[in-house]
Amino acid sequence: MSLGSSSQVLRAHERIIGGHPVNIQDYKYQVAVEVTLVGPFCGGCIISPKYVLTAGYCGDAIAVHPDYTSNSDSSNNDIAVLTLIFTLTVGPTIGPIALPNINEEVSTGTSAVVSGWGALTEGGPSSDQLQAVTVYIVDRNKCNVTYGGIITDRMICAGVPEGGKGPCQGDSGGPLVAAGKLVGIVSWENVCGRPGYPSVLPILLQLLYVHSLQAKPAYEVRNTERFSVALNNK
């Protein structure tokens, strides 16, 4: 499985809700994933010079988690690994994000950062500048009650009680980072920072066979010609 683009210029679209502009040097793992014909614009993150992690929804035509169920209400295992046709050159604006250790826990209340170019408001305006916002890990049981019992142990919830901060349209597949490690991938973007509704993300603690991906990919391979990955600021 492979994908890539000869372009090193980021096609930046929209931005995080309630966020602030950031420098790509501080978020050099962040990339944009775009279907080249017709389809979603998503975020993603570099996990090695050859691999990009994004949401299963974003990579639905290429390489998705074998247990990803896109037709479910909760989109369990919403994760995809993309193999680049080129090897990235790590530098000041390009580099991988650290993955968590196996069985490493992220405690309720832990601060985390989500970044991307998603919508400023639901269906709202866009910005060419990468945005980031701080959110907090929400108790899974409380999150499960909020969402009517569809939150699984393979998901992590994050947000702020008052709302107004979080990912939105265009942020799917983007990273949730705590203490310098990737702990989740933006999955549900429909809440767009609504009060009382935290964002829901696939939890990497349950999906860490990503660590062994370079030895033998465990993902279903599909059409590889429809995607491009873009790097750096526009």
Protein model, in words:
Belongs to the peptidase S1 family. CLIP subfamily. Keywords: Disulfide bond, Hydrolase, Protease, Serine protease. This is Peptidase S1 domain-containing protein. It comes from Ignelater luminosus. Residues 16-234 form the Peptidase S1 domain. The strands form 3 sheets. Strands 1, 7, 8, 9, 10, 11 and 12 form a 7-stranded antiparallel sheet that branches. The two termini are 27 Å apart. The chain has a single domain (20-230), classed as Thrombin, subunit H (Beta Barrel). It contains 1 helix and 14 strands, in the order E-E-E-E-E-E-E-E-H-E-E-E-E-E-E. With 234 residues, it is mainly β. It has one helix at residues 140-146, and strands at 20-21, 30-35, 41-48, 51-54, 63-64, 80-83, 111-116, 131-138, 155-159, 175-178, 181-185, 199-202, 220-221, 227-230. Mean pLDDT is 72; it is low at 1-15, 60-65, 205-209 and 211-227. The protein is 3% helix and 27% strand. Strand 2 and strand 3 form a beta hairpin. The protein is globular and about 45 Å long. 45% of the residues are buried.
